[in-house]
Amino acid sequence: MSHEFQSFEVKPLPAKFKKIAYGLFFIGLVLSVLAFVVDSHRALANYDVIIALLVSVSVGNLFLFSIEYLSGAVWSTVMRRVNEIFITFVPFVFVIGLIIVFNTHSIFHWAHEEAVKTDKLLQSKSPYLNQTFFTIRYFVYFFAWSLFAFLMTKNSLKQDESKDQLLTYKNSKLSAVFIPIFAITLTFFSIDFLMSTEPHWYSTIFGVYYFSGTVLAALSVLTLAIIFLYEKGYFGNVLRRDHFYNLGALLFAFINFWAYIAFSQFLLIWYANLPEETFWMIHRWQNGWEIFSFILIFGHFLIPYFSLLSQQAKSNLSRLKFMAAWILLMHYIDLYWLVMPSLYKEIVFGWIEISFIIFAVGLMLVLFIWRYNKIKNLVPVGDPKIKRSLEFHL
Amino acid sequence: MENKLLYSIAATFSDVNKTIDAVQKINEAGYKNYDVHTPYPVHGLPNAMKLKSSKLGWVTLVFGISGALFAFLFMYWVNVFDYPLIVGGKPFYQLPAYIPVMFEVTVLSAAVFTVVWMLFILFKFPNNSHPLIDTDYMKRVSVDRYGISIQANDELFELNKVKEFFKSLGAEEVFEIYYKVDELQDRPKIFGKKFISFLVLTSVIVSAITYFVLNQLLFMSPFNWMHKQFRLNPQTSTTVFKDGFGMRTPVEGTVARGYLPYPFKGKPADAEINLINPLLPTEQVLNLGKSKYLTFCSPCHGDYGFGDSRLKGQFPNPPTLHSDKLRNMKDGGLFHIITDGQNVMPGYASQMTVDERWAVVHYIRVLQRAVNPKESDLR
């Protein structure tokens, strides 16, 4: 069970990968700008979905990162550097998300002053849902996320050089502070960016619903990146079946968690049958939107559930790679399903949506390459748990 | 060693890595029927033994799916066929409401039947005899040694060869393990006399102790909230009200449903003008009137209204109902007399309802017309 010493210094990514990434990014950028010119309302709504997706990927990875420190998990230590690559997306998401903050009028009904004047419900919700407070909250969320992302990745990188065990302790403490802040900020972020597109609706479980999707998205990009790097040989021979099995098992667990929360929300609304709650579900069950609802039931739960059910499937790399990409797509559709039916009565899906998907994928790849080129070691070599992590057995 | 057969050659090892290496070498040598015993789960051992992954997962899957199906079909049968009840305005067949129950039954049935299958099918419970049990070898490997046992029924098994093989692998001690055939077949009998009497005795003792402790020592009445309610029974006193009466009188001027007070008390003239018989003289009404007349009126007025009392002078005889005065009196007048009374006659308002009194008025008209028919009636 001995490992010969090997270097974990990063090797440059293949040129073809870079070409594809930049190509996708520029095609997506051009198409998205074109979309803004053609139909700014729909483009902004799509942009809102994309921002929520990027928050899922970046902040969700920050959550996984803190959970590793808090639980003292050993298996994921080898993969933590890849985690950190996604965490560093947070400030970029903040910058591109500002477009939503300064254009609330286009997608949020509560931002229409003349509508609020005649609407009793919106008036009573206006102390929370107003432009000033919305902007303040946006800055608070991203300040908190960026702060913790910066502090914790800095400590982790510093440890590579200094091999100081105290840094692990520091990060554990930071994680303990971060988790409750994460719970509150992510809940309110989901209310602001997703739920408030339909300001008349009520749901007390919405924050948890978004959280379940967030963890899934974060896990699936992590799985995709790790399998990509592993198959290109960048990880050497340090990863084995047991590491991948844990990734698959977590994906499987959170698929169940998502279904549990999604069904809980639906069941309560269906049972209580209150008009102020049911109309939201009814919108999503007519005028073509039911297609998306069915895609979610099957694509977001049943298909991944049965694909990852067996023990072998959880460590089968090609299966895992496909399911991770599939779940990422399903998370996008989930977010789209949350936002778009509130703004469009009839089903809409076309080149605008696809161009924003290309933009998001391209942006993630470009940021990934940018960050990947800056780090020195692909594995946190200074972590005290690293030896146990390399020798991890189920 | 008479009557004893060789089960296996077993060896103990002191080091876990040496054990895993030994297992790999045994595998390479081609032995198939061997087993490894360790005092705690050793990671990597199943891989070294090249064990296939357990098939138990399929049992879990099958029982999980059957649990879900059973729950669904059962609820469907109950809610749609056996006892359809409307709950919360929902249809009888309501899938969303079934799903939580289906989920729970799936988990329960998968978990319980996996354990049951494992115990009774894979471990062959209650058979607990195995040649390795109660050997020196087993005593060592369940404390501080790792052990490998190669069975005699393996194709490559040769006593001395295996012993030397173990020694070459670095074994500490090598054991020969024998077993008796009849010992192995001596299974505990569930329906044996001893076992059954033990079971009966235990259950009697346990029940007796339980009964004594729960019903005599620490009696707690279960569910006393059904027969001890915060409620006043009729005719009981209370401290809630100042006067101490549990039963309250209704507010002054309260009128019971269907019992409006009679407005013409002591005013026969007004009653005759204002009251009109609301009933039509149908057969049903006349039968009702007849029955009430015979019950309440006939003792004094006689069966046919001639004033021929059956009471033989205990009360003064009333005048006949066939006088001109009464024949020409309007229905309202007669109703007033029945309700309010007249001279010696008391009012019958408390004995007969309003409709019954009106029906009696109709019946009196029938009697009057029978005694003094119209010309047309006689034709």
What keyword list fits this structure?
heterodimer; A: 394 residues; mainly alpha; B: 379 residues; alpha+beta; Cytochrome Bc1 Complex, Chain D, domain 2; 3 domains; 4-stranded antiparallel β-sheet; 14 helices; rod-shaped
Can you characterise this structure?
The complex is a heterodimer of chains A (394) and B (379). By secondary structure, chain A is mostly helical. Chain A contains 17 helices and no strands. Helix content of chain A is 76%, strand content 0%. Chain A has one domain (15-390). Chain A starts with 14 loop residues before the first helix and ends with a helix. Chain A is globular. Chain B folds into 3 domains: 4-185, no CATH class; 191-249, no CATH class; 268-378, Orthogonal Bundle (Cytochrome Bc1 Complex, Chain D, domain 2), CATH 1.10.760.10. Chain B has a 4-stranded antiparallel β-sheet. Chain B has helices at 16-29, 45-48, 56-82, 95-122, 136-141, 159-169, 181-185, 193-217, 268-274, 283-301, 324-328, 331-340, 354-371, 375-378; strands spanning 4-13, 34-37, 146-151, 173-180. The model of chain B has no long low-confidence stretch (mean pLDDT 86). The radius of gyration of chain B is 49 Å and the shape is rod-shaped. In chain B, helix 9 packs across helix 12 (331-340), helix 10 (283-301) packs across helix 13 (354-371) and helix 12 packs across helix 13. Chain B has 379 residues and is of the alpha+beta class. The chains are: A mainly alpha (394), B alpha+beta (379).
Total DSSP E strands of chain B: 4
Binned, the helix content of chain A reads over 70%
The radius of gyration of chain A is: 21 Å
Low-confidence spans of chain B: none
Percentage of residues in DSSP E strands of chain B: 5-15%
Distance between the termini of chain B: 131 Å
Shape of chain B: rod-shaped
The oligomerization state is: heterodimer
How many domains in all of chain B? 3
Structural class of the secondary elements of chain A?
Answer: mainly alpha
Helix content of chain B: 40-55%
